[in-house]
Design brief:
six-stranded parallel sheet, 10 helices, 15% strand, alpha/beta, 315 residues, two-stranded parallel sheet
């Protein structure tokens, strides 16, 4: 990617800003980050104008409408439509404009609800995704289908990566749309501030998740962009799983909450288990997660504490 023009859609978002920083750290090509105010990626004329203006050699498509279980249940139609449209239009215009490589970023939500654990890439099509996030997961899975079809018919170099749940600095901490780690960090810190004796968490606490520190994911994406060229999807993960109950207690400890943790079993757990087989990523481009979960969580809590303090000082 030396001296290439690199387009990173969603480059100002949580994962995107870390991918851009990794590209710049490696002193690769010139990075362009389009903003929605300039280019609406669900609108075909805007996407066509984007490619005519920037003429990228490499496209890393990170732009997505994402959220936790609550946000997925609230807006399944929007999550499906906007993600499908962005993926289809950006890849098609990349092909028409003669881009040399397209990197599609999928999601672990694309896996069947009851896929064998750890999830292997060949199990993607063995069943239907977990219901609360199926519209989002299926919309993102269409990127894989489109990329494989374009490779077959046009010889288009499209790859597809499947990151596990991410966390880290610059995550979304809005309780209405955040994922589980930022939601719990915020909830426990606010409980400490309020002197609350109890914190209530969603679900039974029995569901398990695998988490990858965002900087490790950014490194994997840039590694794959430079070194991987195959039709098969590739899992990107850390290679472990933890129950939501254990996660809540760990975050409580890191945030200084000493009260009771209870679970609201009327709320959904989401997928029962999530953990990835990451052997293909190790084999194809040598990726292994470097950041331990304890270290990553400590960094994330520390970053969010600083952001809250800065926000208070500014008021």
């Amino acid at each position: 990617m030396i001296d290439k023009r690199i387009l990173v859609t969603g480059g100002s978002g949580f994962l995107g800003r870390h991918v851009v920083a990794e590209i710049q750290r490696r002193a690769l090509g010139a990075v362009a980050v389009p903003r929605k105010a300039q280019f609406d990626l669900t609108h075909e004329p805007d996407v066509r104008r984007l490619f005519a203006t920037l003429r990228p050699h490499v496209v890393i498509h990170l732009a997505a409408v994402v959220g936790g279980i609550g946000a997925n249940r609230e807006s399944p139609g929007r999550f499906f439509y906007e993600n499908v449209m962005m993926g289809a239009l950006v890849m098609e215009e990349a092909r028409v404009a003669g881009a040399e490589k397209f990197v599609g970023i999928g999601t672990i939500c694309a896996y069947p609800k009851l896929a064998p654990v750890p999830f292997r890439e060949q199990d993607l099509w063995t069943g239907y995704p977990e219901e609360t996030n199926a519209p989002y997961g299926i919309a993102k899975k269409m990127l894989l289908v489109q990329g494989q079809a374009y490779r077959q018919q046009y010889g288009f170099c499209a790859i597809h990566l499947l990151p596990v749940n991410l966390y880290g600095p610059h995550d979304n901490f809005d309780p209405a749309s955040s994922h589980v780690i930022p939601a719990l960090i915020r909830k426990f810190l606010e409980a400490v501030d309020a002197g609350a004796r109890t914190v209530v968490c969603w679900g039974t606490g029995c569901a398990t998740r695998e988490f990858l520190y965002v900087e490790d994911c950014a490194r994997a994406i840039v590694d794959a962009t430079e070194r991987y060229d195959g039709p098969e999807p590739v899992n990107i993960g850390a290679g472990f799983e933890i129950s939501i109950r254990d996660l809540a207690h760990l975050i409580a400890e890191l945030t200084g909450f000493r009260g009771e943790i209870t679970f609201d079993t009327t709320k959904p757990d989401g997928q029962p288990r999530r953990s990835l087989d990451t052997s293909r990523a190790a084999r194809e481009f040598g990726f292994h997660a470097r950041t331990s979960f304890a270290e990553g969580l400590e960094r994330t809590v520390r970053w969010y504490r600083a952001e809250r303090a800065a926000g208070r000082a500014a008021r």
